[in-house]
Amino acid sequence: MTEAYLETVDLACERDWRLLFERLNVRVQPGDMLQVSGPNGSGKTSLLRLLSGLMHPSAGDVLIKGESIQQQRGELARNLLWLGHAAGIKGLLTAEENLSWLAALHHGASREQIWQALADVGLKGFEDVPCHTLSAGQQRRVALARLYLDAPALWILDEPFTALDKQAVTQLERHLAQHCEQGGMVIFTTHHHLQDRPATFRELDLGQTAL
Amino acid sequence: MSNVFTLLLVRETRLMFRRPAELVNPLVFFSIVIALFPLAVGPESQLLQTISPGLLWVAALLAVLLSLDGLFRSDFEDGSLEQWVVSPHPLVVMVLAKVLAHWLYCGLALVMLSPLLALMLGLPTQHIPTLLLSLLLGTPVLSLLGAVGAALTVGLKRGGILLALLILPLYIPVLILGSGVIQAALQGLPTTGYLLWMASLTMLTLTLAPFAIAAGLRISVAE
Predict the structure, then answer these.
(1) What does the pLDDT read at residue B45?
(2) Which of A12, A25, A107, B146 has the greatest number of C-beta atoms within 10 Å?
């Protein structure tokens, strides 16, 4: 068994005096795709936030390359692409400005790369349009365009399929599978049933592990 | 690292100028508050001149406070703060750029407007440079300290009033020194001591506050 890149050890999460899950043990190694599912309020988003270091666990720990996330902040930050429910898109900025800032938070990207990424998600011709005039689905696409840039290895995505049309969903599924085939890791939540599953696909149902 | 600093500054500038109302709000508030005083206490020029240092400082302080509530609000709501926190770049640097932008478009703008309002209150023209200097040294402290409060209250639904309660007591030293400089100048006393104290206060907050702001933001995002 190869060493896990990301691992949880007896992880527990408590919110507002309610225990969402406890003794959760998950391993994610390069090439893995993990879908976190479960009913509303079962702690899917909380789990993703714990894994990306935005929240602190009530008990247990998250290990990155075998060491606690507290010591591995830099390592995680260099390799993590986090896309939350709110994706950090500013309505007053154009699609290109939004994307180039979000890219600059990691490695940065040239203008050509940004335009190419926007074209990849079907937003050719919308580069200079302020995002508040775009539809919800189009705004989601701007956020998802980050996945088409020179992206880090570990993707943690909270509900990436929301507001997307059928064709975009299929395309995103393919893109996620491709990332895993190339040795990347994807952890995501969705209520959508995935058609395109790589061999390494696993599902974690919080509804069953929870109390 | 410095690249992220400039990029964030450019981004904040763009955002600010695409929402000009927020740029003008503190300035209008500052002017109106100052304009209200002669109406309330009477147009007696000697009295207005005596209280003008305090008036200008309190009005500037409230104008800054008014603009602080929204400092991190939209970044919190649209998920930008999460992106900053998980980014490999130091949060302190981004925070510093954010506060610098706030100071440039709120604090510095108030400083530039203040001579006009000072003349309205009858402050003698030879004391205008002292006023400018005291506000120039003091407004960064207002922005930096206020940002600590804004970072801690950004996750709360109605953080505005709590922000004022948290921050106003912390503004007392800078208020005393800031208006003290002008009082001293009006009485013909030396002002260098006051100004040096203010400069050291500015340096102190400039070096320490960004760490407190970054820590506050991490706490707010973790909620």
Answers:
(1) 82
(2) B146
The reply to whether residue B77 touches residue A77, judged by beta carbons under 8 angstroms, is no
pTM for the full predicted model: 0.91
User: What does the DSSP 8-state code read for residue B107?
Assistant: I
pLDDT at A210: 46
A80, A85, A97 member nearest B86 (Cβ): A80
Residues in B closer than 8 angstroms to A105, CB to CB, are 4, 83-84, 87-89
Q: What is the pLDDT of residues B74-115, one digit of tens each?
A: 899 999 999 999 999 999 999 999 999 999 999 999 999 999
A104–B77: do the CB atoms touch at under 8 Å? no
> Predicted ipTM?
0.90
Whether A56 sits inside 8 A of B222 (CB atoms) is: yes
Which letter does DSSP use for residue A34 in this model? E
Strand A154-158 with A185-189, pairing:
parallel
Q: What share of chain A is helix, strand, coil (3-state, %, to 5)?
A: 35, 25, 40
Strand partners, A19: A14
**Closest to B7 (Cβ–Cβ): which among A82, A93, A101?**
A101
Which residues in chain B are contacts of A74 at CB distance < 8 A? 88
Asked whether the predicted pLDDT for residue A211 surpasses 70, the reply is no
